[in-house]
């Protein structure tokens, strides 16, 4: 492949579908991109990697017309490419499936997939045609069990992600940008996505693939470009590199070898016991016990009831039956709403940080301290100096990339937003912490930091529930793994007594 820094449009006789030259972008307090150049060729998967805040999403948003570069040029098929809007970029054949989903919650799945091309006659939508077209795309991404007329807000985050991907596949395109497409997907859904990527490659579509999952990049990418602090570090053929080299280029330092497997803890005291929990079709008589100092993983297919179980425990959804016993008590605790759960020292880091975990229009400081305002105020007046101090302390602990505590959370990268959600619950100092996909959108270096933090919390006697769609992650950090299938908790595995095949067999067991 030619060197994009010399001439990304034509070099060595090979034409680039998309050429990017010396692109720069600055936001208040931060240089997001500094003279970035690269080239994208027909039928290739070009991975874009870097730590949170490295500039990956900013570059992608410039490519699809959402942001505009301060300097530099772009060419699409040899012609100047300066999209003034997302619509203009799509008209040129450049489409993006964003990390932060852009669905209209009250519209149906089918309407969201074909939002810009709804089949109509005499001004009326032809729903029979729309649903037939949607079913075919939904089948390709593993959503064949979902009714196309279902409102999107009734789907889980992983299912919503697949709707976004189906929408991205709904139109012909020259360049498809996938920003963390598998962050909320299980292994089986990821396989379906990879099948679609292979078909697109064969059709000559160029794909920009942004992911923190190094194994995925090595599997499907032809080349990988590393960004660090807004700068283009290097572009490599994946066949000529390895994960360690990519990580070293990303972080600019040698990561210490971290042994994720935890020593077997002595689990004696019960932190929480759940018996017969029921909540709609997704939670059907769930029983489990969580010990102090334990990390209990929850695995299962998308829509298996993992998140719904935790929402019922936390009081976000009303449980229809069942009992929750806390802190070794034999008397059940009544949790009717989220404030009850927080009062009983339970924290819930939700999988949907954008809608359920953050106030995007408020500052980092406010989002971090929102759970402890009483402790930081006197007679109704908040001590802003103390707010700043604790926010900076937690930001340093989590390696948050920001320029001021007053910075709006909406201006952070997705991974750094996740760190703010984590910070607010660390400040609350709860005894039971429910983490639903806590590493979604988090770079590899930050993942290790979070794993270390989990170990530190359990050493303090905290009890942790860890939900993840990444089986390797669960097997690395958890003491036990509970498996959900079709709303039922079908099996719980101990460390040393599990493998991916047994866990996946359990995950499918209740669907037969």
Backbone structural class: alpha/beta
Total beta strand runs: 25
The CATH architecture of the largest domain is: 3-Layer(aba) Sandwich
First-last Cα distance: 48 Å
Strand content: 25-35%
Order of the strands making up the biggest sheet = 8-11-12-5-13-14
Helical segment count: 17
Query: For this entry, what is the oligomeric state of its chains?
Result: single chain
Helix content: 25-40%
CATH topology of the largest domain: Rossmann fold
Overall geometric form: globular
pLDDT < 50 runs, ≥5 residues: 1-13, 255-259
User: According to CATH, what is the class of the largest domain?
Assistant: Alpha Beta
Q: Give the CATH H-level superfamily of the largest domain.
A: P-loop containing nucleotide triphosphate hydrolases
Largest sheet: 6 strands, mixed
Radius of gyration over C-alpha positions, nearest whole angstrom? 23 Å
Average pLDDT works out at: 86
How many structurally independent domains? 3
In brief:
By secondary structure, the chain is of the alpha/beta class. The chain has 17 helices and 25 strands. The strands form seven sheets. A six-stranded mixed beta sheet has the order 8-11-12-5-13-14, with helices on both faces. Strands 19-22-23-17-24-25 form a six-stranded mixed beta sheet, sandwiched between helices.
